[in-house]
Specification:
The protein is of the alpha+beta class. It contains 3 helices and 5 strands, in the order αββαβαββ.
């Protein structure tokens, strides 16, 4: 389903649909949604599924997919099965790495969300960390 994303809540609600209800509490997964210039979704890509406390995000795979679908923007999202919305040091580093790499391709990283099984989310953009 294609949607227009105007806020972090819109993004969190949309992204939550892509997580398997059973596994959001068990293992970390990373998903990216790709957007056009009007912030309408083009599609999404499950970057990785990891273990209980981590997952690997390959920036090259994210950007390759963004280029193939002609995205102008993207929103990274992953879950914390623990229910803790605070970003880890690894979360902060991968966000900056993806943002810096995307700039070269004229693609904007609009947000990085952390979802929890309890329905809460953390937005890097809302907290001025992007």
């Amino acid at each position: 389903k294609k949607v227009q994303i105007q806020s972090s809540k819109d993004a969190a609600d949309y992204m939550r649909l892509m997580f398997d209800e059973d596994t959001i509490e068990v293992c970390e997964s990373a998903i990216v949604v790709f957007l056009n210039r009007k912030n309408n979704s083009i599609g999404w890509y499950k970057v990785s599924q990891g273990g209980i406390s981590g997952t690997v995000i390959d920036v090259r795979l994210v950007l390759a997919t963004a280029l193939k679908c002609l995205a102008s923007g993207m929103i990274m999202c992953h879950n914390h099965p623990s229910g803790n919305t605070d970003p880890s040091e690894a979360d902060i580093k991968i966000t900056q790495k993806l943002k810096d790499a995307a700039v070269i391709m004229d693609i904007q990283l609009l947000d990085h969300l952390i979802l929890t099984p309890g329905g809460e989310h953390f937005s890097f953009a809302d907290m001025g960390r992007l």
